[in-house]
Amino acid sequence: MDSASPIHIFWFRRDLRIADNVGLSEALKDGLPVLPIFIFDTDILSRLEDPYDRRVDFIHQAVAALKASFQKSGSSLKVFHGNPLAIFKDLIAEYRVEKVYWNRDYEPDALKRDQEIISLLENDQIKWKSFKDQVIFEGNEVLKSNGHPYTVYTPYAKRWRMKLDQEGLDFHQAKLENLLTFEDERYISLEELGFQKTDMEYSEPIIDLEQIQQYDKLRDYPAQDGSTKIGIHLRFGTISIRECVKVALENNATWLSELIWREFFMQILYHFPRVVHESFKREYDQISWRNNPAEFALWCAGETGYPLVDAGMRELNSTGFMHNRVRMLVASFLTKHLLIDWRWGEAYFASKLNDYELASNNGNWQWAAGCGCDAAPYFRIFNPSIQQQKFDKQAEYIHKWLDEKAYTTVSPMVEHGFARERAIATYKKGLTAAK
After folding, report:
1. Which of 25, 144, 157, 405 is the most buried (most CB within 10 A)?
2. Which of 11, 255, 258, 361 is labelled catalytic?
3. pLDDT for 408 beyond 80
4. Locate the Photolyase/cryptochrome alpha/beta domain: which residues (predicted)?
5. Residue of 261, 344, 367, 401 with catalytic role
6. Residue 249 sits in the same domain as residue 305
7. One of 342, 344, 367, 401 is an active-site residue; which one?
8. For this structure, is 354 an active site residue?
9. What's the CATH number where 97 sits?
10. Both 41 and 65 in a single domain?
11. In terms of C-beta density within 10 A (0-12 exposed, 13-18 middle, 19 or more buried), how is residue 342 classed?
12. Average of per-residue pLDDT across 280-287
């Protein structure tokens, strides 16, 4: 097809799939041939310090799978590496673009980027259309009766469930015959992006129904294979949230609650973007954190002397994953036992987690530190030894990640009772000063 003929563009972002992709399906039924594109955004990639990044490898493989799927339909996926604004300027110059489609993102940097693209398109009198795809309900769709956002999970979840209906779970079919045909190009390599091959092996997401049905019974025990590992697929959109919610509705209410927590934190970030850098409860920014770099390094390395904490950190460092129950413990330990600013831990998780998502990572760290919108009270301080007795009594998880020497000879870096009293006193002092 010649470049003088009008086309539509669909821009893949956090929705790396064809099945049940709202924006893609809408673009493909809107008349004109659709050019699908993906941009390896240098503004994002340049902030990643370690070239061995499993998330970039995951995206690279998922985009390759998308490209191969489109090739089977006689088209392809046009892949770019650079600044999105500059790339769209080039696309507008090369093609007669009538309309650009994408699915919405809600993180502050993404909103800023999208507004720049919108301004460019409107300046060139090019239409654009965005869609809700990565959530069931967007930030303004689940509000209190007075129009204000919810800041407590339980009433938010109740309202969320009341609003849910079948219309919101419809499957969106893509008509691939309406794709633009064009000469395919060589796919950019990981090395050209500035990254290395990792041990990440991408495969199409599969929801294990038996595992979902047992989720509420097994999810707190790290030695059990009770985690769905769907988080990374939701993060990059290789699975539809609608598919997940339908499965949860039919199989496990606890898993549904976890999916609602994800949307709760997303709407908190949307309505209160300051939480990226500030405590939701501002008075908690008056706490005098100890912020000892040597102690932080021991926590990062999994050398605190508390086996369950250390096993969790070593699992994270080795695999990019950590069991959710253990995530809560290690976060509590850092912020309460060591009195290290939750932002330090949040940033470390952001650099390591395969399923890192700003809203959930921020929300859960603030929950653990007691400063979030729906937080554990500051005086709730996990006892690592009791957590081990309750959730890894036979030390199966611990032995998987710690050798016998690390398990038996490393002394705790701080005694629990002392750390607990110190944390409570420090929090009280900071909150009193904030009044």
Report:
1. 25
2. 258
3. no
4. 6-136
5. 261
6. no
7. 342
8. no
9. 3.40.50.620
10. yes
11. buried
12. 95
Sign of CA dihedral 345, 348, 352, 356: positive
What is the domain-level CATH number for residue 266?
Answer: 1.25.40.80
Angle CA(101)–CA(25)–CA(22) in degrees, nearest 5?
A: 75
* 349/345 Cα distance (integer angstroms): 6
Q: Do residue 338 and residue 358 come from a single domain?
A: yes
Instruction: Please give the pLDDT value at position 406.
Output: 64
Are 17 and 86 within one domain? yes
Model pLDDT for residues 130-172, shown as the tens digit of each residue:
999 999 999 899 999 999 999 999 999 999 999 998 778 999 9
- 261 catalytic per annotation: yes
Domain of 151, in residue numbers = 135-171+205-271
CA-to-CA distance for 60 and 57, rounded, in angstroms? 5
Number of domains in the chain: 3
User: 258 catalytic, yes or no?
Assistant: yes
Q: What is the pLDDT of residue 241?
A: 97
| pLDDT over threshold 60, residue 1 | no
- The answer on 406 and 281 residing in a single domain is yes
Average pLDDT over residues 5-33: 96
Helix (H, G, I), strand (E, B) or coil at 229: coil
Residue with tokens 């563009």, as numbered in its chain: 9
Beta bridge partners of 129: 101
Lookup: tokens for 292: 């000892």
> Which residue in the list 83, 178, 317, 324 is annotated as catalytic?
324
- Answer yes or no: are the C-beta atoms of 185 and 291 closer than 8 Å: no
Judgement on whether residues 123 and 140 belong to the same structural domain of the protein:
no
Residue of 11, 365, 367, 401 marked active site: 365
Pick the last residue of a domain from 110, 132, 154: 132
Residues 289 and 230 in one domain: no
Q: Which residues contact 113 (CB under 8 A, 6 or more apart)?
A: 41, 43, 84, 85
Quote the pLDDT of residue 180.
94
Query: Which of 178, 289, 317, 383 is labelled catalytic?
Result: 289
